[in-house]
Request: fold
Amino acid sequence: MMEAKKLPEEYGSLVFGDKVMRERLPKDIYRAVHKTIVNGTHLELDVANAVAVAMKEWAIENGATHYTHWFQPMTGLTAEKHDSFISPEGDGSVIMEFSGKELVKGEPDASSFPSGGLRATFEARGYTAWDPSSPAFIKDGSLYIPTAFCSYGGEALDKKTPLLRSMEALSKEAVKMMKILGYEDVSRVNTTIGSEQEYFLIDKEDYMQRKDLLFTGRTLIGAPATKGQEMEDHYFGVIKPKVSAFMHDLDEELWKLGIPAKTKHNEVAPSQHEMAPVFETANVAVDHNQLTMEVMKKVADKHGYACLLHEKPFDGINGSGKHNNWSICTDTGINLLDPGKHPDDNVPFLVTLIAVIAAVDEYAEQLRLSVASAGNDHRLGANEAPPAVISIFVGDELARVLESIEQGTAFKSGDKEKMEMGAQVLPHITKDNTDRNRTSPFAFTGNKFEFRMPGSSVSVANANIVLNTAVAEILSRMSAEIEGLTGNALHDRLTELLKETLIAHKRVLFNGNGYTDEWIAEAEKRGLPNLKSLPDAMPEWISEKSIKLFTSHQIFTKEEIESRYEILLENYSKSINIEALTMQEMVRKDLTSGLIAYEQDLTNEIMQKKDVMPAAKATLEIGILKTLDDTSAQIAEKLETLKKDTLEAEGIEDVQKQADFYEKKVLADMNELRVYADQAEALIPDEYLSYPTYGQMLFSLR
Ligand code: ADP
Ligand code: MG
Reply:
């Protein structure tokens, strides 16, 4: 175990970060790289060569024999292909080599990654390009180089490329706005993210015995345990010793990789936990979250656990999400979502706040889509997770501030030159006055917004791509309204603009309990979209509005948008298909064999009893046998329907129609079958089942 006092030294010890670069690179090279990282400028090949040499030496000293370009294709996972540093000398010996060209560009044979038609399979080449703004690191004896992944024609085939583009777009628009507001010194604005990660831990042996968990990540059958989460005794509860050892190990592994793991605690559901990191620049935070999920699984395995990252591994028990804490910060150190103590900072705050409100309202469908997945569909709208309707919580104090802006009472004409429009209205907003509405999908939490809809297994890249782009769009429209104005004219127009914008979008503001049916009805009256499932939501991705938003800020081309549409729908259908097949197999084999064995024993039992005692009633035994017989008849029927519909679904050509069918038919069949399967399971003693029950999985951890 890492000694506490060694932590500062060990932290980031496997990362080729700023400190290592400063130590190992010639000054001019270091400066050039640093400039590239901060400003996103192009890197010359001679600089790359020098970096590659230093990187290789550092990596070898730290035990790496290989390097890999590490990227995030649209599978939602990460991908890697390892090459060793060795280069044969011809005399039987080898030297270790790594060039700038190898650092900067890779050419994985990429024909098997989803491209949604962007890259015909005969043109299998895909390129990976180094992202110097996310530090390289060492894992399992390889040097990992974070990269973007694109096609021969330059189309993005990954999640990093559009994320970087969206950060750029937001920076451009925010800088422009800041300059109009008189903050001439701002030259770059950074998106920051802290993503809290929820997960379940269960016994590895239990996991290995369940085909549903192995193949689909969630349980497809399973009667509830007699105890659930109703006692509310797990949230922030005492962490069990073995789990604590896991968490400790996890922290250490993450720290070595330079991932700032900060908070850990038990979550609401039994066996559910959370890890929250300190926030970082968006693309680094996204990379680190992907890495966190991977490390969680690896460390869990070492400790005899399986780490479940699925959004809804257990029915009737809270699912897992990933709260995306998001803010934007200038290179001069102003957090644009911090109301701050200094009134001078408040104009940027109010402008940003209102821009976010407008962006979230206007692009609610796109934001909803950014978190759509087969897994997350089970979570959104369930009683423990935010509804599929997007609304914003700002807290009472900010609500009052917004109200006064709306009523035009906010800004008295003071010293208009200085633009102190926030001064009179903004109380010092403390964090405690905001947050604590756990039911809001998009909540202001003191100095950032917390988007709570992302599911636990997805990359948060998508959510931030949409958020950044939508806010960039609103800021650009606002800038256009006030550009060129100064003094009183600027003040007056801006005051009016904030008011207009707020009035146009205030329907998205909601401070009440988002989990109630009343809110869903109210949201409908307000005209807020309620896109319940991925197939329902997908048409919004290729709508004119969506295409206009993303193409005008150069985040996606129309082709990239269309390809993502196909990939998402296909992925959805494939997921449900695997679930349907797995469920059929589990019911037909695992559940049924237990059921038959138990029925047989029961029958023997009854016959023996009657042999010994002809007048025996055997009421209980016969009752159970009768119920099991009725239930198995239902199971047989539902199984047939599921089988038939799954076959039909597989044959549908159109991606949208196919996904619709999987959702409306196949998933519905699965739900029906599950009712009877779970009824049967509840009657069958555990020892007859070849897989562990809910009770065992959720309550056996020590
Ligand atoms: P809680 O949400 O429980 O109140 P915190 O507010 O301390 O907890 O932090 C939640 C997450 O928000 C953490 O991951 C933290 O790093 C992140 N966070 C804090 N400030 C910012 C910011 N300016 N931008 C992005 N994320 C932030
Ligand atoms: Mg939080």
